[in-house]
């Protein structure tokens, strides 16, 4: 391995003569009392600050090879990294020096980690990156550097995770371990950035089709059946592939192992619902409500099941009211509640359109107006329903013949409406 060498500086007649750093290896720190380090560092600092990296380089080597500990707070290793990157990429740098820089930068990163532990994770990920793009190291070595960096800093930017994932993707045919690790990387990125369509697309490249990819995930889980992380990877992919039977199997395992994890229950409840397993879907949503009593969505979701799947309008309304309590400004519960009253009027129609039926439609209209008044995403549809139901609500002659005046209330009761327990006010 070639390393840039600094030939010792000799102070003569107060003039600093700095040798070229192209002549071999010298990675040891050597104390030299004849060197005016403060002067050397001042020149190094100023040249670097002004981005005159060519002039800064020799002074930097003087500091690093003499006594860098005195200047660590000024981050000399980071400054030397800037210099070496500039020289490496400069068209004016001799090819032999470029080759020397490739090895020297690794020494800079190792020293930076040793001397600045608080900056170790920065130097490690840069070491991994340089090992990949500057060197022709074996894949195993580059991967080890990236994995060490991720272990030191799991919050690394997406860029470096993707670099590692691409390595696994390029070498997926070499062994199944690369497939498993690549799947893990891009599953993680899919969860970190759920709106980024690139990560699911890259996941599919590890297999010829989604079903094959799902089988790979299943095999990975089967080899380590108690591993919840692998179970979740399989469950999530099965869910995305709309293979709800497989997703249910994995999510049932996960909720048993970690019954407090919200996401497991939410996807399991949805999977049950997709498979028309209404009873278990309701049970899963009830568990979610216990875990998240202030979450409006859980109440709304279970209300929809009682409404659309079970036809239990009264129970559905009770959950909609809880959703409204959780978020009083949400228009959706009122919009669905109004639909309940419409459905009740249709269900109770006996071939003759009676006054009480019209009153139920009026209750639906009043409730749609509440939804519209919230100004949310359902305000427009609610207004459309108000207009659509105009001919179904009581007219002035209906009130006149019943001697009802403006401000009077009409209680909704009789037929199959007793569960409603509400009144309308005569306009």
Low-confidence stretches: 5-31
Number of separate helices: 20
Name the beta content range: under 5%
Order of strands, main sheet, comes to 1-2
- Structural class, by secondary structure, is mainly alpha
Query: What is the number of strand segments?
Result: 4
The rounded Rg comes to 35 Å
Provide structural commentary.
There is one protein chain. This protein is mainly α and 427 residues long. It contains 20 helices and 4 strands. It has a two-stranded antiparallel ribbon. Strand 1 and strand 2 (15-17) form a beta hairpin. Helix 7 (158-170) packs antiparallel against helix 8 (176-192), helix 15 packs antiparallel against helix 16 and helix 16 packs antiparallel against helix 17 (332-348). It is elongated, with a radius of gyration of 35 Å. 36% of the residues are buried. Residues 5-31 have low confidence and may be disordered.
Describe the secondary-structure layout.
Blueprint: E1 10-12, E2 15-17, H1 37-49, H2 53-66, H3 76-89, H4 95-115, H5 120-133, H6 139-152, H7 158-170, H8 176-192, H9 198-204, H10 210-222, H11 228-240, H12 244-257, H13 262-274, H14 278-291, H15 296-309, H16 313-326, H17 332-348, H18 355-373, H19 379-388, H20 396-401, E3 409-411, E4 423-425
Antiparallel strand pairs: 1-2, 3-4
Question: Briefly, what is this?
Answer:
This protein has helices spanning 37-49, 53-66, 76-89, 95-115, 120-133, 139-152, 158-170, 176-192, 198-204, 210-222, 228-240, 244-257, 262-274, 278-291, 296-309, 313-326, 332-348, 355-373, 379-388, 396-401, and strands at residues 10-12, 15-17, 409-411, 423-425. The protein has 427 residues and is mainly alpha-helical.
